[in-house]
Amino acid sequence: MTGRAVDFRFEPYTPAQRARWNSFVARSVNGTFLFDRGFMEYHAQRFDDASLLVWRGERLLALLPAHRVGDHCLSHAGLSYGGLVLAQPLGAATLLALMQSLQRHWAGQGVRSLLYKTVPSIYHQLPCEDDRYALFRCHASLVRREVLSVIGPSPAHWPKARRKPLSGALRQRGGLTLAQVQGADQPAAWGAFWAMLTAELAARHQSAPVHSLEEMLLLAQRFAGHIQLRLAWQGEAVIAGMVLFETATVSHVQYMAASVAARRCAALDQLIEQAIVQAQAAGRWFDFGHSNEAGGQVLNEGLCFYKESFGASTVVHDHYLLPCDPGA
């Protein structure tokens, strides 16, 4: 125990708390629009929601986006990251006491463990990794670690192997037009990119996009200020594209894809370089996302090298399993 008596109250989320929840996320220091209920609930039918509001007296201290599967809780399988969302850093001792109280709360609800997906540090507006220390003290196990390839918010030092920028002559020779779609304003453009993305993922990785086109258009409409589509056109055809999720501190690549024609004229490279420059001009990190498979045990070295060729280096994203058995 911490030696500090702190009483916390854990209130299950209900739709009546939607406005309060979203307002808290908007002013949090480590939350992003992914924790807004409008984002969390686009696929609500897939999850048994078990989210919590954490109170101390009359003060709302934290949120925990979560769902339940049997005697196990997750924060959150439907999101890239999860864990406690804070309005401000609480301090190491208070966060430790909160985590211990959270263990007891879940144990009392018949929950044996919580999968806790940390919010990567680059998404924090203030340093607040107290939860990592609390997880350690509460005997959580590191069960997954992913390599995020990121570029800092200061102007890039481009690797010698890569020109900066790719020449406009290359773009002209390829007959390329680079365009940006904010939100869901151009559904036909989204549809063209999604068809290419789906075909590329199926052919190269035997996989499919996490979101359907309909889901992506819904989210892009709800969060037009945070979701954008960048495309490279060759004549009337979309040959490369990327979907960016923009937060206060990070420009994150959610999807990217390029056709055979795009690889001939480095169309995706040009889109990426343009996006990096614009992210840095806004003071944001540029996050390519992870290059891992099999729960982090396999590194796709070719994909990781491609990202690093733009000057990216590694920030890790950790997932912990927190035991919640009585007496934990």
Question: Please, could you describe this protein's structure?
Answer:
The protein is of the alpha+beta class. It folds into two domains: 9-145 and 318-323, Aminopeptidase, CATH 3.40.630.30; 154-283, Gcn5-related N-acetyltransferase (GNAT) (Aminopeptidase), CATH 3.40.630.30. Helices cover 31% and strands 29% of the residues. The protein contains ten helices and 16 strands. A hairpin with a 2-residue loop joins strand 4 (67-69) and strand 5. Helix 3 packs across helix 4 (130-137). The longest helix has 19 residues, at 187-205. The chain is globular, with a radius of gyration of 21 Å. 38% of the residues are buried. The model has no long low-confidence stretch (mean pLDDT 91). Its EC number is 2.3.1.-. InterPro entries: Acyl_CoA_acyltransferase, BioF2-like_GNAT_dom.
The count of strands amounts to: 16
Strand order of the largest sheet: 4-5-7-16-8-13-12-11-10-9
| Name given to the CATH architecture of the largest domain | 3-Layer(aba) Sandwich
What is the fold-level CATH name, i.e. the topology of the largest domain? Aminopeptidase
Describe what is shown at a glance.
Its EC number is 2.3.1.-. This protein has ten helices and 16 strands. The chain has 328 residues and is an alpha+beta fold.
List the helices and strands and how they pair.
Elements: E1 9-12, H1 18-27, H2 37-40, E2 52-56, E3 59-64, E4 67-69, E5 72-75, E6 85-86, H3 92-108, E7 113-117, H4 130-137, E8 141-151, H5 168-174, E9 176-182, H6 187-205, H7 213-222, E10 227-234, E11 237-246, E12 250-258, H8 260-264, H9 267-281, E13 285-290, E14 292-293, E15 298-299, H10 301-308, E16 313-323
Parallel strand pairs: 5-7, 12-13
Antiparallel strand pairs: 1-2, 2-3, 3-6, 4-5, 7-16, 8-13, 8-16, 9-10, 10-11, 11-12, 14-15
